[in-house]
Amino acid sequence: MNFSNRYNARLALVAIALMTGTAFLHAGETSGANTNLVIGLLVPPEEPGAASLRDGATLGAELANQSPGPQVRLVIRGRTGQWGADGVEAARMATDDGALGLIAPPDGAATHLVLQVSGRTAVPVITLSADSSVSQTGVPWMARIVPRTVEEAKMLFTGIHASHWVAVIPDGRAGREAVRDLNEAATNSNCSIEKTIEVKSSFTNTTRLCKQILKNHPDAVLLWLDPASAGTLAKALRAAGFTGTLAGPGRLRSADFAKTAGGAMDGFMVSGPILEKDVATAFQHFTNAFRTRFSHEPDATAAAAYDAATLLIHILRQPSGHPAHEAFPIGFSLAGATGILSFDSQGNRKVNLQLFKAHGGQFLPAGAGANK
Q1: Range of the domain at 38
Q2: Is 165 a member of any domain?
């Protein structure tokens, strides 16, 4: 099936789900008969940070229900299926489950499907996707809770003193989105990526992949991959003798990356939001509550999902009497676990970034030029 046919088929699936569809609740969800507000979280089964997404959003809903205001029920959907299944699940949350707002995952393709549903239903969307194209869809009731890839990469390019960059990206649509944003960031930073290498998520021949990377003689390698894949490749590159700088997106501040990278994590650099002093309390409150609820440390994805749920609930609880989509573009600021939640007219997060450098198994603020 060619791209045009696949695209049309995908739209048809979404349209059918909007017009029909049968009622369905995620396993473990209650009927919510006494619930005033329903929000939906799309978690594709193949999403690398699925557990963090679920945990962060769940905590956001649970803590909201401890405060005054209408009670909130979180519906979680996601299933394996043909291309477009994510759109069907998003549509069912809006129609069958009565979701008044949706949270879209880091996967850009899934977010685009959610936004197609949003465009038809006027259900607001908070997304964790860093793809620049997400805010170019024309859906006005959308906000991005994470920094854009362009912004994260620019911080790395300007803060790391390197002349020869190689970028490793996933194959398919995710890779095309990443390389476009990475090249834009490089151009804006007056540098260039000399080689871009695509890899499948199931790559196994790390020896050959390392040779392919190192034959370009880089002094810095961007691993713009999911946490487990990035950690595996970081470990292999260090074992192969690479002594230059390794860097990647902020979502690599995760247990999956630390587990697969092992000792190769030390010195790895990412960018992330600056936590202003006036939001330190919100961050600590989230961290303490997360530890208590789930018995482990939260990662960057969990914090972003928590903020997405908190922001969406805040919007839905406003006593204006107007539909939620009329709150967009968002004109207020809110203290979140990832910093001040503030957005531009296109729904992009307005955020100040800094470099983080891994040391002793955790990422600590590094400051500009910290690779020295």
Answers
A1: 3-147+281-341
A2: yes
Together in a domain, 11 and 136: yes
Q: Verify cis geometry, omega within 30 degrees of 0, for the bond prior to 140.
A: no
Q: Do residue 19 and residue 71 come from a single domain?
A: yes
Strands (E), 192-324: 193-199, 220-223, 245-248, 269-273
Q: Compute the residue count for the chain.
A: 372
Q: Please check whether residues 8 and 114 belong to one and the same domain.
A: yes
pLDDT tens-digit map of 54-113: 999 999 999 999 999 999 999 999 876 665 688 999 999 999 999 999 999 999 999 999
Residues 57 and 133 in one domain: yes
pLDDT digit string (tens) for 120-175? Answer: 999 999 999 999 999 888 899 999 999 999 999 999 999 999 999 999 999 999 99
Q: Are residues 238 and 178 in the same domain?
A: yes
372 within domain boundaries: no
pTM: 0.87
Which of 17-26, 213-222, 232-241, 278-287 is predicted with the least confidence, judged by mean pLDDT? 17-26
**Are 220 and 357 within one domain?**
yes
Q: For residue 29, what are the contacts with CB-CB under 8 A and spacing of at least 6?
A: 73, 74, 75, 76
Q: What secondary structure does DSSP assign to 16-76, as a single string?
A: HHHHS------TT----TT-SEEEEEE--TT-TTHHHHHHHHHHHHHHHTTSSSS-EEEEE
